[in-house]
Amino acid sequence: MTADNRNLKKVIPITAVEPDEALISLYAPHQKIYPRSVSGVFSHWRWIMVWVTQIIFYGLPWLEWGQRQAVLFDLSVRRFYIFGLVLYPQDFIYLTGLMIIAALSLFLFTAIAGRLWCGYACPQTVYTEIFLWFEKKIEGDRAARMRRDESPMTAEKLGRKAAKQLVWIAFAFWTGFTFVGYFVPMREMFADFFGLKLAAWEFFWVFFYGFATYGNAGFMREQVCKHMCPYARFQSAMFDKDTLIVTYDTERGEPRGARSKKADLSTLNLGACVDCSLCVQVCPTGIDIRNGLQYECIGCGACADVCDTVMDKVGYPRGLVKYSTENAMNNHWTRDQTFKRVLRPRVLVYISILTAIVLAIFISLVTRTPFKADVVRDRGVMARVVEDGKVENVYSIQVMNATETTQHYKISVEGLPGIQITSETTLSLESTKARWIPVRVQVPPEADKPGSHEIHFTIESLDSSGRLREESKFVIPR
User: Fold this and answer.
1) Does domain 371-476 have CATH number 2.60.40.10?
2) I need a labelling partner for 474 at 20 to 30 A (CA). Which of 9, 226, 276, 427 fits?
3) Domain locations along the chain
């Protein structure tokens, strides 16, 4: 030891830790949640939504419409097929409208009934429910899974764990495959996969979305709802005292405590809650609804189902845990009084805006012209004087057939005296095809003074009533 080190020890004395001091961790260890199976009205509705959403999700890519896939967002050719509707990138406004409708619908449903979307139709909830079902079938119920996880590794434990993982991986892979099937023709991709001809980017996205499903529903589960989903964080901004939420009747349930079925509550000074903790055991996010509304609550109603079962067993009225509103609980409203507050001002505003947007998009889709056209003046060719002293400008016109049948079109122009098209004025387009055509336009030399003049092209479908009018400029040189 050097002299400097000895001096340093003299300057900075080492003191012992006081006996009453304790090390406090700022991070609580994650406790694995083992949701208990539950049966009841809300559980049945949750499984109905699982079946409905998954039949639609897995079935749509296999549904044919004419000679193509019914729903296909074909990015390679930049066309979106939705049954009989064909949309192009120029129809991006409809996607914007759809997103606005989805956002306003979420606001509306949340203002009326809280997080019903999270509890019944959110993909995270749906796939977690499916993965838990697989887990229960392979590893057993809640108690069996907890005992197995705490026991040493055995051949039987390893076999069940491995079987569960294989089933999870297979289901997640099929989910990713189906998702990509909305962007690549499903039947072609299916044949390419088994023929080992799947493109690299298709292979990547199948496994990417498969891995996301496997990780989110198999492992992270409630962590996604509690820490990753932003909806839980801003839901309070959409709640009010008339929003339907899962509530615990504190006035009726407290003080809680265990008792025999024949016990007299008035004698024991106890409420209806028997403190069985089953409401905590069935909660997919592991919260205690008796502590009041918490942002982790996804409104699935599992606690209400299991509490009603307990109330039936002990002979008490149902509804200790139920869907209700803060005002209804505080004012002891009946069900009719509660539902009368549904159509309050903010809800009416949401409904009005949502209805207006839906009607506007619907009318626009019904009345939209079944083709599109763009007119571009050819800047590579200057305005020029041709035979007979006429002035000529050249344009490029793109016509896109948005129908699934061959269409014929006629092009005309107006805006200057004696203006006429001297090139081809008709064209034929196959279904969902686009084509650029050069168009030469001439005017007499005395048509107007030199400069830029506004003209209009009319593109008319000869097979339907569609007609488009596009503006452009005609230049007369000095």
Assistant:
1) yes
2) 427
3) 41-235, 247-328, 371-476
* Mean pLDDT, range 320-338, rounded to an integer: 91
As a whole number of Å, the end-to-end CA separation of the chain is 98
The residues near 387 (Cβ < 8 Å, ≥ 6 apart) are: none
Structure token digits, residue 412: 């005309």
Strands 245-248 and 321-324: antiparallel
3-state SS class at 399:
strand
Q: Which two tokens stand for residue 48?
A: 């109905």
What's the pLDDT tens digit per position in 61-111? 999 988 889 999 988 888 888 888 888 887 888 888 989 998 899 889 889
d(CA 291, CA 271): 15
Bridge-partner residues for 355, per DSSP? none
Report the C-alpha gap between 464 and 473 in whole angstroms: 28
Amino acid at 196: L
117-159 residue pLDDT tens = 899 999 999 999 999 999 999 999 999 999 998 999 999 999 9
Token match 């507050």: residue? Answer: 341
Cβ partners under 8 Å of residue 116, min gap 6: 109, 299
User: Tell me: the pLDDT tens digits for 339-391?
Assistant: 888 888 889 999 999 999 999 999 988 888 888 888 998 877 778 888 888 99
Helix (H, G, I), strand (E, B) or coil at 372: strand
Residue with tokens 């199976």: 37
* Contact in structure between 416 and 392 (CB atoms under 8 Å): no
| Residue position matching structure tokens 């168009």 | 439
How confident is the model at residue 419, as a pLDDT?
Answer: 92
Taking every pair of C-alpha atoms in the chain, what is the biggest distance, in angstroms?
Answer: 114
**Three-class DSSP category at 267:** helix
Q: pTM for this one?
A: 0.80
Question: Which tokens belong to 439?
Answer: 């168009």
Q: Which residues pair with 472 in a beta bridge?
A: 455
